[in-house]
Prior knowledge:
By secondary structure, this protein is an alpha+beta fold. It has helices at 25-28, 40-59, 63-69, 73-76, 88-99, 155-161, 168-181, and strands spanning 5-6, 81-84, 105-109, 126-130, 136-149, 194-205.
Amino acid sequence: MSDARDLPDDLPAELADGAAAPVPPDLADGLPDDLPEPSAEDLERAERVQRFWESARGRAGLGRVVAVTGPAWGEAMAPPAWSFGDSPELADELLGLVLEGTKTGTASLVWEYDGGQEPMPAEGDLSILLDGAGEPRALVRTTEVRVVPFDEVDEEFARSEGEGDRTLASWREGHERYWRRNMPAGREFSRDMPVVCERFELLYRAP
Length: 207
């Protein structure tokens, strides 16, 4: 079992009042003209994520920064929203571990970021965790990021993942099985492949 991120399709972010957020001037010229038209379902999901973000950032104490500095582009937009694993069932299971405080770590492969569509995690990053139905359930903040070979992931990190019996042996077995079935194209599982070990803290959970 693994907790690699499963990102939904790119969705337009909406502000809480339903108005589309402005495009920054430095990005406007670089936007492609052939973006697919978002579906009504996509728009509704984006609105739910944005509403969650507006509520979560205030309750987590992040709104005070916006009140002092003013709502800049990055502050108005919701952070990335994603779910764990490769199935709704796994997403719900791992999210549950986060909500109960057992899971404070997640692992991914460096190779997953090769395409440039998703940036590598970094300390201080915010993320919205979705459940298996795509509903926003939690806001987390990345507290540490390390990149190590698969066979150098340690007991402490394996325990932070909160899965199975929380041992390193269980972590290796579950993640090898997961990555063998979800390996990026052109890559093969190996004991020295680079793994992103990310630690995070729970800032807010949906009521």
